[in-house]
Amino acid sequence: MITDGSPTQLIDLAASVLHPHRVGDRLFGDVASALLTAGGSLHTGVCIDTGSGTGFCAEHAAIGAMVTAREYRIARIVAVWRSDEGVLHVLPPCGRCREFIRQIDPANLDTEVVLSRTEAPPLRDLLPAHAWPSPLD
Fold first, then answer.
1. Which residues contact 45 (CB under 8 A, 6 or more apart)?
2. What is the pLDDT of residues 61-78, one digit of tens each?
3. Partner of 102 at 20 to 30 A CA spacing, among 16, 62, 112, 131?
4. How far apart are CA 28 and CA 15, in angstroms?
């Protein structure tokens, strides 16, 4: 049960929606994400791996659910994966996800990105070169 949206609770929520499903040589849902919005709502999502490059990361799915609910500001986000041995891992967002989080709302530079049960730096620390560049001349 989520009571405060702590890193541990978000990790547990994301882990609860991990349900890998194989279709041919593709694996759906082997990475899951959970996020807490600035308004206190929770959203989850899973990755979809496709052969044509049209798939998306778990963070994208969770953010899509958030935007569908007309929320844009992410307070905290996490992604998890479970190994074949059953060991749960927290995954840092890929570069595409980091940029996606940033572009959803400028305030998301302050989003806490959960990297472990005790570490959740702001997105700005993981995406330091985020400002539009100045002209050269």
1. 17, 32, 33, 58, 59, 60, 61, 62, 63, 64, 65
2. 999 999 999 999 999 999
3. 16
4. 14
Would you identify the CATH topology of the domain 7-126?
Cytidine Deaminase; domain 2 (3.40.140)
Residue among 87, 83, 41, 49 at smallest CA distance from 66: 41
Is pTM, for the whole model, over 0.85?
A: yes
Neighbours of 55 (CB within 10 A): 13
Look-up of token digits 């479970």: 82
Q: What confidence tens digit (pLDDT) does each residue in 17-36 have? A: 999 999 888 889 999 999 99
Report pLDDT for 2: 57
What sign for the dihedral angle of Cα 99, 107, 91, 25?
negative
- The residue assigned the tokens 């100045």 is 134
